[in-house]
Structures are given as structure tokens and as C-alpha cells.
Amino acid sequence: MSVPSTHRYVLRAVIEFTTPFLVGAGRGGDVADAVFVADANGLPALPGSSLAGALRAAFHGAGHSPEDENRLFGYQDGDTGAGSRLSVSWACIHDQHDRPVEGIVEPRRLDDPVLAMARVPTSRDHVRISHRGAADSSGHGKFDEQAVGAGQRFTFEMELDGVAADERLWDALLGVVGDPALRLGGRTRRGFGGFRIVSAGARVFDLAKDFGDYSRHPVSLASPSPVLSPLKTTAGGVPSSWATIRVDLRPQGYWMFGGGQDLAGVLGDADMAPVRDCRVVWNKGHGRVVEDLVVLPGTGIKGALAHRVAFHYNALSGTFADGLGADGVEAVTGPRNGAVGALFGFCKGDAGEDGEDGRRGRVVIDDLFLEASPPSQLVHHVGIDRFTGGARDQVLFCE
Questions:
Q1: What tens digit of pLDDT does each residue of 205-227 get?
Q2: Pairing state between β 75-77 and 276-283
Q3: What is the pTM of this model?
Q4: Fewer CB within 10 Å: C terminus or N terminus of the chain?
Q5: Residues 266-316: pLDDT tens digits?
Q6: How far apart are CA 68 and CA 160, in angstroms?
Q7: Could you tell me if 214 and 208 are in contact, meaning their C-beta atoms sit under 8 angstroms apart?
């Protein structure tokens, strides 16, 4: 027999993404292989189910007991089970005035610069690197995604239906929300989904005494709540249990993370250009879109590191390509390499340890946005005919 609920535990939080993020719609789009979930206005959204799933996974990863996890999020065990007592709302995106956008809005409101940027995100190109250090053209090695840009703000709310004794579980859940290790959406090991908590309000309502205050708490996320108290959280930093590596690099020559388009009227019609993106910058409650920032993608750094980790791990373990053959080389490169699999994870179907179906990586590398564009140079190239030593036809290009 269930115990009647006497308390409501409420949290409303405003979060700001410090990196791009992608909550996938489960399908491709007209110009990308993966697109984000959008609301009826075409604006990016964070479904409550995605938030609840991320919270449950983080709660489990924090070492809390399965019994506590089931009490919060529900469970199904054969013919028995219980529904979740935690309700999580959809997260609503903010406009340039830092106001949540709820429901279907007038088209003119979508002209807001911050919302316009969110509706038309920049596509991110990706390519898998083979054991030769070059692009792997087989098995969907080349793909692109439409991620929501960094700097976007969202508001969401969660409410726990319980009793006085659930305060312990509520405090544990708030610790998960404030954990800097928590990331939202997919591709989190590619640096996506990082966020910080801008503001948060919470309160425990004892319905026997606080029913009036609970009734005054607005349903609309766009309406400030007069009954919640400010809550201090820490999300957005670095977890104390993680090792952090900071490397300062100074290029010795030209460098480029390709995949972008040349800026008109700056360097000319280059065939290859650095990847650029835009982000939202907030100042005193006002959002401003900063465009054409040069980006060092975390995926580009991660791919290069994974390739070199495999090389050095094989060298240290005395594993060399001589005599291995194609199958043998494949077995010691990529996710099948012991160090690469342990650090960067592997997908279901790849050969893992003890036949595991898959495991996410333990290394997180965020995108780096350069505040000022570095000096750049247009470099011309031409393909050389190996027999004549002259230029090949139609292979002149520049970057």
C-alpha cells in the first residue's frame, strides 16, 4: 500500500551551455545526417525525458543505491514496478532578453537574433581516422551533425512528489544536478553538452502548512516564482575526482582545422578554410550573437590524440605492423587498441574487453573558441604529375 504524499520538492533552474549540444531527433535532415529536437516553433528544445534520463544515469554513476534510484525514477521488474515520482519539464530556450520562450509564438518574435541563430545552427563535419592516419571512407566514416550553438540558455523545472523522509533523496538529486561532470544530450565525449547553472530556485513544500505558497508557484516557466528560494550550485566547473590536463601550444607554422567556409572579401575564394562558428555571449541579462569565431573542435583534437595513443601504446607494448597483415593491423588500431578503448571508449559491435557491448570514453575535450581571429594566409597548392613533373590539370587549389 502506497504512502500518501505530503510534500512537494521543487527546483527551477536556468542553464547556459558552454559548448554546443545535440539532443538528436533520431533522424537526418535535409543538410545533415543528424539534427536536434525542435519545438513547434522550430527552436531547439530539451525534452523532459532526455533530462530525466541524463539525471538518472548521473545518479546511478554517483554510486547511489539501486533502491534509491528506483524510488526516484521508478522501475519495472517483471510484473511489478512503480512509476517515477520525479516530474521533469521540457526546457525552454531563452530569447535575447533572457526570457523563456513557451508555446507557439508570433513569427516576428522569431526574428530575435538569439532565436534566429538557434533555428539555423552551423553544421559540424566529422570523419573517422583510419590506422593510416587518413580519413576512413568505409562504413559511414564521413558524416555531419547540426548541433545547437554554445551560449544558449534554457529554463527547466523538476518536482518530486513525496514525503518528509524523501529530503535525503532530494538532496542527493540536487547534488547530481550541481555535479560539474553532468552533461546533457549526446556526443558528450566529443565535448558536447557542457553547461553551467546561471540561477536556480528551490523549495520543499509541506502541503499541510505551505499549500497556499505551493498554489502561488506559477506553472509558466516564463513567470518568476515568488515562493522559491535561491539555491547555490556548482555545475560548470571541473569535478574534483577528475584529472585535468591543460596544454599551452604555440604553432610553429600554418595550422588549420578544416571544414569551414571562407569569409567573403577577406582572403578570396579558398577551397578549404578553418571551421568557424557563432555563439551567444550574455552581459547583464542581454544576449548577443558573436559570429565567425575560429573554432578548435574537440573532435579534431580527440581524433588526433586517439590515433597517436594507439601508436605509442603499440610501440611500448612491442606490437609492430611487420607481419601482422591487414586483419592484424585492424586488431591493434582504433577502438580495438587497448589504450584507445580504455580512454576513448568504443561502440557496440567493436571488439571490447570481455565482450562488452560498448562503453563511453573517459576523456572529455571541449571546443575552444578563439576570441580574436589569428593572422591567416592564403596558401596555393597544385598537384604534380609524377611522370612529367608538371602540373596536373584541374588540381590547383588553395586553403
A1: 999 899 999 999 999 998 999 99
A2: unpaired
A3: 0.80
A4: N
A5: 556 777 888 888 889 999 889 999 888 888 888 888 888 888 998 899 889
A6: 13
A7: no
